[in-house]
Amino acid sequence: MRHMLALKYVDAVARAGSIRGAAEVLAITPSALNRRILAIEEELDIEIFERHAQGVRLNSAGELFIHHVRAQMADLERVRSQIADLSGVRIGHVRIATTKEIGGRLLPRLIQAYRADFPGVTFSLHAYDRGQVEQQLHNLEADIVVMFQPLRLADMQVISHQQQHLSVAMAADHPLAAQPELRLVDFLEHNPLLPPRGEGIREIVEAACVKKGLNCKPTIESDDSALLRHLARQGAGLALDLPLTISASPQESELVYRPFKAHEIEPGFLFVGQLHKRNLPVAARKFADQLREMFEREMERLPQIETP
């Protein structure tokens, strides 16, 4: 385990970007940590960090080495989890990266339910844009990703994917609330509230606008989906949402949701995935299985919409 401790030091320095910052996290002195890093570089017979005035950063050799470090740490966590599972006590830490329109509503109650059965399992849940989510997976900094409209699937082993037709969120007294279905032009003419370019929902809307020759110009743009829903609730405009996240938030009763008419806008896909060919720790694998089962259950409950 001394070897793993050395790897932990390298990982901490790479994350912090400085010896001093990593030393604070590790609760050792900066000079002691610096000696450890120098000893590791001497053993490897190559420098893995570039030193500069603001701290340190990985060089090309360091980038290769940190991937090995994180793979070793992830494998040790998997073995620990398997050993604990043999004794009937599930422990472990599950790291989840998600896109911003999903994490705050869909995942917390699932985590809570899982921990009610297995209190020895802890979680970290972080929301990013799509590219960052995929980078977290590739860098072994996330065990599971839950994301809408991945940019690429090359590194991802798909655990579940569910088609999602966008729904329009609005205040209960909005004039369009009386209509059972909406056209894309209705949405665009009533103060559209949208995430920034590059996000999955925005990508789908802009593609539909190009197809129909419409101008996609949001009244308010934000990467905070909760803020966009709040603005819609206040009557500032119309936001967009995913059926699975709507079903996970019954408390948001002040909002009403209306689907688009068939063929108005293409659906997107919600994915749960892990790094391709990676053996997950028991706790992460079991949680991923529960995510898949929950998604399938919830989709069966939702009304079916004709696919464009």
TrEMBL record:
<dbReference type="GO" id="GO:0005829">
    <property type="term" value="C:cytosol"/>
</dbReference>
<dbReference type="InterPro" id="IPR005119">
    <property type="entry name" value="LysR_subst-bd"/>
</dbReference>
<dbReference type="Pfam" id="PF00126">
    <property type="entry name" value="HTH_1"/>
</dbReference>
<dbReference type="InterPro" id="IPR036388">
    <property type="entry name" value="WH-like_DNA-bd_sf"/>
</dbReference>
<dbReference type="InterPro" id="IPR000847">
    <property type="entry name" value="LysR_HTH_N"/>
</dbReference>
<dbReference type="InterPro" id="IPR050950">
    <property type="entry name" value="HTH-type_LysR_regulators"/>
</dbReference>
<dbReference type="InterPro" id="IPR036390">
    <property type="entry name" value="WH_DNA-bd_sf"/>
</dbReference>
<protein>
    <submittedName>
        <fullName>Putative HTH-type transcriptional regulator</fullName>
    </submittedName>
</protein>
<dbReference type="Pfam" id="PF03466">
    <property type="entry name" value="LysR_substrate"/>
</dbReference>
<feature type="domain" description="HTH lysR-type">
    <location>
        <begin position="1"/>
        <end position="59"/>
    </location>
</feature>
<dbReference type="GO" id="GO:0003700">
    <property type="term" value="F:DNA-binding transcription factor activity"/>
</dbReference>
<dbReference type="GO" id="GO:0003677">
    <property type="term" value="F:DNA binding"/>
</dbReference>
<comment type="similarity">
    <text>Belongs to the LysR transcriptional regulatory family.</text>
</comment>
<keyword id="KW-0804">Transcription</keyword>
<keyword id="KW-0238">DNA-binding</keyword>
<keyword id="KW-0805">Transcription regulation</keyword>
